Structure formats: structure tokens, C-alpha cells
Amino acid sequence: MEEKETLSCRDVSPKMTQERKTYTKGYEKFNAEDTISRLYPFIVRVFDVYEIQNSGEVLYFYGTPKNDEETVTEELWAPFQQFGFGCTLKHELGEYVLLVAPEKQTTEKIWVNLVLFIATFFTTMISGALMFGVDLINEPMQVFRGLSFTLAIMTVLGSHEMAHYVMARYHGMKTSLPYFIPFPTFIGTIGAIIRYKGPVPSRKALFDVGIAGPLVGLIMSIAVTFIGLNLETSSPNPLSNIMMFNLGLPPLFIFIQNLVGVEGGNLHPVAFAGWVGMFITLLNLLPAGQLDGGHMLRAMLGKKAESISFLMPRIMFLIGIYVIYWLNEDGFIWVFWALFLWAFAAAGHPSPLQDKVELDRRRLLLGIIMFILGLLCFTLIPFKPIT
């Protein structure tokens, strides 16, 4: 068994002796008593400590919560983050113990983000060139004709993820930079993602991070759509080996068309990037699991959101069946997303640390408006191949 050193509560007062136990790990030093002296004032606000032990870099505070268990981790998360520590409250053998340890610092490999960004830049440019009818086999240098589509789609996707990133950092959460994912789809990518590390501090933070991406991404999609609809569109010259699609235009896109004075016809690739942004916004705002819409709904309704998250895959499945059997159209996209959400939402949604504080009315109203905007990006048949 690992050996633990026991310190009495008297040892952790602000006026401590000069004798301190230090552990060396690599080039970093962990000073147990110095750490206790820094963290103890925060701990005693929510936790009555009667014994402290340490083993290596882990500190064990034995005591009793002054209120409830949830309050302990809620109140300690923010100050502990400032000192680079994490904590976990456990109840073992009839007593409470607060485990405190330094959070492992990991160095982000920024070069991975950069390589994926460059790769996605070129795959989307290839897709954009194909939309202009460029024969890349015989005219490879014409790939740069797809640059306008690349700039548009990367702006839409990048702004969505960077909004998540900025808002998460604002709330003190640890997160990675966006990872763009190059993939041989008709747009050259399957989007971008960021990785969150550690817990979400509050429902307010959960809502802000969840809504930031769809909100900023939709604003950029609308801007890109306006630009694309004002660009001159030539008749497509499809290549024999390239599949063409008819797009189902959502109400928001049609509304912008009416404002610009454009009716039907062929879409410029930049306008198509705006359409893609709206479609991605719709999918992200589905209130299920850990999608952006799931984050928002969990923050707005608390644990009551689980029932809606449970129903959402079934609703999507019924929509797919309706499109396939009643409209005789391709509804596979909705069946696929139903199965995806079924698996994705099965694990549930982790609770934020401060789960008791409800959202203010301003955020609730903003969330309702955002879900309505998401509905305006919906169309029963998003796309179908031209035969």
C-alpha cells in the first residue's frame, strides 16, 4: 500500500513552519505544505477538515461538507483552476474525503491543427473547382478557381468552432483549437471540431459555449449567402463523373433570396457555402445529446431536457420514414441522423458543476430565438441527386 503522510489541521494555518515536504517529479516540484496553505482557505469555506494526508502529489482532506456535496466542487472549481489543481469529493467507509492533485499540463500540438487546416483548405478548393466544372485531370492549375468556395466554407465552419473556443476560454474552460477534417465529400470536408477538457463550471457557461457556435456560424452563413447570391452565376458544365444535386432550400435561404431579388436558378458556389452553413446549423441545433442544441437545452431546462433528448432521435426517424414512404423521396439523411443521435444521446449529458443556478430570462429568450432560427434552416428534402 502507498504511504501517506498525515498532517493535523493545525499544520495548515497561514502561519506555517519553514519545514516543508517537497516531492520532485522531473523538473517540477510539488510542495505539499505550501500547496495546502494556498488551498486551505478556500476549502474551509465549504468543507470542515479534521485531517489531512498526502501521498506523492495527491492531498487527502478528510472532513464533512458544510452544505451539500455538490456545493463543495462547485465552489472550489474556479479558485483551484487558478492554481492549476483539480479536486474530487468521495464518500468512502463512512467518511468524506476531498482528493486534490495538480492537473496534468499537456502541450497542444498546434502543428496538427495547422496541417489539417491546410489539407482541408485544398480539399475544399478542389471541391469548389469541380463545382465550376473544372477538369482537374487535364487542367490541374485551374484548381484555384475553387478558392472563393474555400474561403466561404472555411469562414463558415471556422467561425462556428472559434466561437465555441473563445467562449469556453472566457468561462475558464480548457479546450483545443479547432481541428478541420478533410474528407472526400462534395464539399471537401466533414466540418471541424474542438475538444473540451475538464468539467463545465455552470449552466451559464454550458449555454454560452453551446449557443456561441451556431449563432456566429449562422450569422456568417447569412453573410456568405448574401454575397453568393449577388455573384454572377454561369450555367454549370458538369463533368461526366461528378454527381449533381438538387438542393432543397430552407425558409431562411428563400427569405434572403427574396431580399436580394434572386429566384431559383443555379447557385454560385459561395451561395452554396451559405446553404451548407445553414444545414450544419440545423444539425448542430438538434436538442439531443452533446450537440450544441443539446448543450443549450440542458442549460435551459436542467435535467428535464433528458426527456426531449430521448424523443429527438425517434422524431428524426419518423421524419425519415415520412419522406421515404409518403413523399417517395430520399429520406436516408434523417434516418441516419436518427440512428446517430440514438447512439450519441444514449450516454446522457454530463452535469455542469453549478447545476442549481438557473439561466436568466435574457439567455432563455436568446435560446428560444436560436431554436426558431434553426427551424428556419430545415427542409424535408435537403438534397437529392440529379439522375
Describe the structure.
The protein is an alpha+beta fold and 387 residues long. The protein folds into two domains: 5-102, no CATH class; 110-385, no CATH class. The protein is built from eleven helices and 13 strands. It has helices spanning 32-43, 69-83, 110-131, 147-170, 203-229, 251-260, 269-284, 292-301, 305-326, 332-346, 361-375, and strands at residues 5-7, 22-25, 28-31, 47-55, 58-65, 85-92, 95-102, 174-175, 179-182, 189-193, 196-197, 245-247, 383-385. The termini are far apart.
Task: Give a summary of the structure in a few sentences.
The protein has 387 residues and is α+β, with helices and mostly antiparallel strands.
**Structure classification:** alpha+beta
Q: Count structural domains.
A: 2
Distance between the amino and carboxyl termini:
70 Å
Q: Describe the strand arrangement of the main beta sheet, using strand numbers.
A: 1-4-5-7-6
Mean pLDDT: 84
Radius of gyration: 26 Å
DSSP helical segment count? 11
Q: Which outline best applies?
A: elongated
What is the total tally of β strands?
13
Main beta sheet? 5 strands, antiparallel
Report the sheet-strand fraction: 15-25%
Order of helices and strands: EEEHEEHEEHHEEEEHEHHHHHHE
Low-confidence runs of at least 5 consecutive residues = 9-20, 22-27
